[in-house]
Amino acid sequence: MAKASSGSGSDKRPVRPNQAGASAPQDPKNRSSQPRPAGQPRQAGQPRPAAARRTAPPPATGFTAFRREHPMMAALVPVALVIVALVALVVVKATGGSSAAPPASKVEAGGASVSTTAGTSALPAGVLSDVTSVSPATLAAIGEPSATVAPSSTGAKTSLTASDGKPEILFIGAEYCPFCAAERWSVVEALSRFGTFSGLSATHSSTSDVYPDTQTFSFYGATYSSASLDFTSVELETNQASGDSYTTLQTPTAAQQALLSKYDKAPYTDQPGSIPFLDIDNKYIGVGSGFTPQVLQGLSMTQIAAQLNNPNSAVATAIDGEANRLVTAITAATGIQPDAATAQGS
User: What pLDDT does 135 receive?
Assistant: First the structure.
């Protein structure tokens, strides 16, 4: 029985969110990057654009120019905005606006204040059962669709072996990360064909990142039991903002950090240091989510799980399809077949 444990290795946090398909390092002192040309859509796998650093202040335009030319009128604008805001609050109250926001971890303006809402909660009833009981017929019908991405073979001869001698699978992610949120669904489904999870909790990605508030599992504090495999997870940070970062949760051991340094780079990713990071017995590496978190947007965990046995569902195609790819990689890496009761005929 392997427990998702913290470890005591490097104090350096290896990741920050900044990529579609993965969340990668950011230096808070240098967040600028080249903006994409106007009108050109961002492609999957490209880093999110950031404002280019300016070396000189821009000429006064818009409200700045107006304020210089009409100082008295400009002074009245804040008063007018306050009045409008108060009227809007009264209208919302009168028309029955939403009385409760969903649990969230949100950075307020300037990053100085954060929500104190707990980052995890109990799994909704039936969710884990739905994830672990997808029928072989559904799995076979979905197969390994092109909308999902398979882990990459390393060609390594040395296995990643746990202390009990079993092949090990290592997952490194963070609760704030939307790409980790998406990938955990498939990891739970895939590994449940080889063993059993207990102690999983519910969490969600950051509400201030791309694909906000993506509903998912947290591996923190969970255990995994299998006769043939070991699973280890490291959840680096919570979804609770702390200044311009997130609260540290777990730290990789020196050995885990060495694997990140060795494999969390080209040719396995064009964004070195990205998460989620998945090492399957050192034989296969997955960096980034195997499908876009967009497919899970706006859905609760119960709604997501309820679609997994429907081969016509986009949610099932993404999660089941990526799980199928992970099962294929696990079997190729270790020679271990999934439980016959849930295998897709492999």
Answer: 95
Cis peptide before 17 (omega within 30 of 0): no
* Average per-residue pLDDT for the chain: 75
Q: What angle do CA 35, 36, 40 make, to 5 degrees?
A: 155
Strands 277-280 and 168-173, sheet pairing: antiparallel
Instruction: Quote the Cα angle for 323-325-328, to 5°.
Output: 110
Question: In sequence order, what DSSP letters do the residues of 79-106 get, joined into one string?
Answer: HHHHHHHHHHHHHHHHTT--S-PPS---
Alpha helices in 112-205 (DSSP H): 127-131, 136-142, 178-191
Q: Are 151 and 229 in contact (CB under 8 A)?
A: no
Cβ contacts of residue 247 below 8 Å, gap of 6+?
Answer: 237, 238, 240, 241
Q: CA dihedral defined by 16, 20, 21, 27, rounded to 10 degrees?
A: -20
What pTM did the predictor assign?
0.68
pLDDT-above-70 percentage for the chain? 64
The helix-helix angle for 62-69 and 71-94 (nearest 10°) equals: 130
Helix (H, G, I), strand (E, B) or coil at 6: coil
In the chain, domain spans: 128-334
Q: How far is CA 80 from the centre of its chain?
A: 41
Pairing of strands 230-235, 168-173: parallel
What's the mean pLDDT in 171-193? Answer: 97
The enclosing H or E element of 256 equals helix 254-263
Strands ordered across the beta sheet of 168-173: 152-153, 284-287, 277-280, 168-173, 230-235
